[in-house]
Amino acid sequence: MKKRKYVRFGIIFLLPLVFIFSQCLNKTKTADPRGENYAGSAACLKCHSDMAKNYLHSAHFLTSRNATAATVSGSFQPDSNTVVYNDRQKVVMEKHPGGLFQVLYTSGKLTTRKRFDLIFGANRGETYLTWDGPEVKQLPVSYYLSLHKWANSPGGYYADSVNFSRVIHERCFECHASNIQNLNGVTAADMQSDSLDKSSLILGIDCERCHGPGAEHVKFQIENPTVKQARYITRFATLSRQQRIDFCSMCHSGNSNVMTKTTFGFKPGDTLANYTSGATFHAYRDAATVDVHGNQVKLLMSSKCYISSKIECATCHSMHDNTVKTAAGYSTYCTNCHSPANHNFCKLADQVGPAITTNCIDCHMPVKSSKTIVVNGTNMEGTPPFLARTHLIAVYPGETQKVMAMLSAKQKP
Ligand code: HEC
Ligand code: HEC
Ligand code: HEC
Ligand code: HEC
Ligand code: HEC
Ligand code: HEC
Ligand code: HEC
Question: What is the per-residue pLDDT across 232-247, written as a single tens digit (0 to 9) for each?
Fold first, then answer.
């Protein structure tokens, strides 16, 4: 792990600053732990109430949340609450009056018991975190939604050792939450620990995590109800494509980049290079090597569509509308650019026939399985790997064969 120069400064100079700062915050009684420039999502929804319905169900909003009996998806029933690691060790998911727990039994004896405090993940899986003093640690068992199964957590978890000690750093929260303050000033250099301030945590990705601080916007629009234009808030439409890509890239270019400062301060319009050492940032990873962290940005940027047109994330994804789109729905974005009239339509059009417009993506943006996620554990053999939709738009002969076979099977009476 590359050490960061500012870490030592952080410990010497920032600790007193953090202390003074927290005293000031206590005096002013700011409602939002990020400071008085922030208004909080509840304030935004008062005027932008049309967004509430979708936003509250979005993967962004739900990506981190409190773990309760109502929010944890896995079963605590005796027939399906156990992950057996080996003939000595098993972890049992248990519900007690004090909360939900992962309990390690070694040769039948209870040896460790940790509470489910937080959930990370809204889409394909849930991994669970527990507060251990000022540190946050990941629990050994995660829940895989598509498998409807508890299994060993991804990354650094092995079939033969039950690991309760993986420290979760501020960095994870930078992409999965809206705020947490690091009591060391910055992520600890050795990556062995990280003291985080529980009271500063804002779960989920909220309006201002994406739009930047909005208190001034709220104040202005309240005081000037006749003004129908937005003031004091960055308009995405005024940014360059690179600025909009940098914004998504802050979280959607894999999690192995070396950062030089926290991205909690990143606002739309900022340049991501100012937050990184640059070297590893846009590193290319093909879909087969992604873990749970897809690198949609680099894959899309490597596509001919990106190089030769103005395509960007927002061409296909809207941040405030999470109605599920079908393959046919996504294909309409492709045919806005690629059509017989534009003389750049699919070369396979004649072979595929009229069904072509229903599914460009399974041939040109196929779902690939991640080879880096292996769900370990002796009772987990044969589990399907983790799937990710590659964002490298290209010709994939192997996938074409599969889709052609599927289409011709459908045509048979
Ligand atoms: C008092 C009412 C009010 C509140 C509260 C409010 N807004 Fe707005 N907002 C407006 C109005 C009016 C507009 C301009 C019309 C429009 O685009 O809907 C606007 C526009 C916007 C825009 C669009 C800018 C553009 O044109 O691209 C964004 C983004 C935005 N608001 C974010 C927020 C956020 C984030 C919050 C909470 C911190 C918030 N608003 C709270 C009234 C409000
Ligand atoms: C602050 C970090 C952050 C930013 C900024 C961000 N995302 Fe995300 N996004 C996430 C995380 C984390 C998830 C995974 C949520 C989960 O499943 O737990 C996600 C999920 C998604 C998904 C899958 C959603 C679903 O419902 O299945 C899409 C699509 C997406 N993001 C697109 C974008 C685009 C486009 C941008 C830029 C306009 C963007 N995101 C900006 C963190 C971010
Ligand atoms: C650079 C931003 C970033 C960092 C740092 C990061 N994540 Fe993620 N994480 C994401 C995004 C974006 C997704 C969704 C990726 C996708 O769907 O392709 C995701 C997905 C996940 C998922 C799967 C969720 C789902 O519903 O599919 C888990 C679990 C997860 N992250 C845990 C963690 C943990 C634990 C850490 C710290 C060790 C971490 N992440 C660090 C951005 C990040
Ligand atoms: C994951 C990041 C993200 C989150 C969370 C988010 N926005 Fe946005 N918002 C965007 C982006 C990017 C745009 C630009 C248009 C687009 O790409 O959909 C946008 C556009 C807008 C607009 C302009 C109108 C429109 O629909 O284009 C308003 C108003 C707005 N957001 C308000 C909000 C409010 C209020 C919240 C919280 C409830 C919120 N946003 C949460 C990223 C986000
Ligand atoms: C904004 C316009 C635009 C959109 C949207 C778009 N493309 Fe493209 N695409 C292009 C351009 C321009 C090229 C480059 C053509 C050339 O170089 O001759 C291209 C190239 C391609 C290529 C050739 C790739 C290669 O490596 O040879 C394929 C395949 C393709 N697009 C499929 C798609 C599919 C499928 C979609 C929808 C998922 C899509 N495109 C969406 C504009 C677009
Ligand atoms: C040409 C259309 C297109 C563009 C452009 C595009 N996506 Fe996607 N994206 C898709 C499709 C199709 C899916 C799969 C949706 C599904 O299966 O429900 C997807 C899925 C995702 C997911 C969920 C993870 C997964 O593997 O299913 C994330 C996260 C995401 N996109 C982020 C982004 C980001 C960030 C950008 C910009 C760098 C972007 N996308 C640009 C079409 C696009
Ligand atoms: C059954 C799989 C399949 C489907 C469905 C499909 N394509 Fe293709 N596409 C291919 C293959 C294979 C090629 C390469 C053919 C060749 O080079 O002879 C291709 C070629 C292309 C090209 C030209 C690439 C170049 O080399 O210039 C574009 C653009 C394209 N497809 C877009 C689309 C769009 C848009 C859709 C949806 C309307 C679509 N494709 C649907 C398999 C498919």
Answer: 999 999 999 999 999 9
